[in-house]
Amino acid sequence: METITLTPPPESHGVRIDTYLSEAQIPQIPTRTAAQKLITAGQISLANAPAKTLSKNYRISPGDTILCNLPTPIPYEATPEDIPLDILYEDDHLLIINKPRNMVVHPAAGNYSGTLVNALLHHCGSTLSGIGGVQRPGIVHRLDKDTSGLMVVAKNDMAHQSLSTQLAERTMGRIYHAICIGRLKQDTFTIDLPIGRHPGDRKKMAAFPKNSPKAQQARTATTHIEILEPLGQFTLVKATLETGRTHQIRVHLAHMNYPVLGDTTYGVSRQPFKLDGQMLHAKKIHFTHPVNGECMAFESPLPQYFENVLAKIKKMQSP
Q1: I need a surface site. Which of 10, 29, 121, 262 has the fewest CB within 10 A?
Q2: Neighbours of 183 (CB within 10 A)
Q3: How many domains would you assign to the chain?
Q4: Is the distance from CB of 317 to CB of 231 less than 8 angstroms?
C-alpha cells in the first residue's frame, strides 16, 4: 500500500471529493468510480477522519488535506527493446525524455511493442517506478503518439508520487508550441471548458460549455493560448496547460475553430497541404525535484519536421 498526500488548490474548493481525486492524475484513481471505491473502503482520509464517514459527494473546503492509501502496483512484465532514446537529463530518480513523433508512450491494443515503455525498460532495467501499473511503469504523464517533445519519467515510486502530486496540484508547468489553422483574433486568451468523452464517438474527447448537462460528467480543463507568430491563414501559438486532460490542446483549439494543423481527428480531414502528422510539440517543462527540492526546467527545440512545415508556410506567404 502506497500513501500520498494531496493539498487541493483554491480552484478545487467546492468540487466533489470523488471528482477531484479522479482528476488528480493518479494512475490508481482514473475515474470517479475508482475514487468512490477507495472512499468506501476507508482508503481516503480527510483531516485525519476516514472519508467513508462522509458523503461521497463531500465538497472540498479550504484547508483540506487528503491522504490516499493506494493499492500496491502490479509489477510490469514486458520485453525490453533496444530503441534509442533522446535523454536530456537523468539521475537516480527521474529522466527527461524528448519523445519523437510517431512513438506510442505505453503498450495498448495494436501497439504492444516499439513503445516508449519498451525502450525505457531496456534503458532502466528494473529501476522504473511501478505505480503506473502493468502498462505504464515510470509514466507520470503522457503525450499522444503524434505529439513530440518533453516527458518526465519516474525511476522509483517516491519520485512518481511527488511528480504526480505536482501534476494534481498544478505546480508542474508544461508549455507546447502548435501551428493552428486560422487567424486568431486575440493575442492571448484562456480556454476554460470541461472535457469529457465525445457523445457520438467514444474514441474521441469533446469540450462542453460549462452550463451544459454534459459538462457535469466532464473534467475541468484550462489552456492558456498566446500568439507567437501570425502566418497568414495559420498561426504559431504557445499553449500552456493548467490541467492535463486527454487531447486537451487539440480539443480546446478545435472547439474554438482553430484546429491544430495536421490533426485529422479534431480538425479537418482534408488538410491545406500534405502533412505526415499534427503540428504539436511539448517544448518546455518545469517542476520541483522530488528529492533535493531544486527547480528543474527543460526546453526542447522544435524538431525538424515542425521547422520544415513552418518554412513551407512562410514561403506560401511570400509575394
Answers
A1: 10
A2: 13
A3: 3
A4: yes
Neighbours of 203 (CB within 10 A): 7
Q: Domain boundary at 21, 55, 70, which?
A: 70
Q: In terms of domains, do 86 and 154 share one?
A: yes
Q: Which residue's C-alpha cell is 522504473?
A: 128
Tell me the CA distances in angstroms from 53 to 4, 45, 59, 71, 285, one per residue in order: 20, 9, 14, 20, 39
CA atoms of 84 and 45, how far apart (whole Å) = 43
Which residues are known to be catalytic?
Answer: 144
Within 13 Å and on the Cβ side, how many CA atoms surround 290?
22
Q: Which of 140, 169, 198 corresponds to the end of one domain?
A: 169
The verdict on 225 and 116 lying in the same domain is no
Say what the pLDDT of residue 226 is.
98
Q: Residue 309: pLDDT above 50? A: yes
Does 312 lie in the same domain as 224? yes
pLDDT at 289: 98
SS3 168: helix
pTM for the model stands at 0.77
Least confident window among 2-6, 244-248, 250-254: 2-6
pLDDT of residue 214: 82
Residue 149 belongs to domain spanning? 73-169
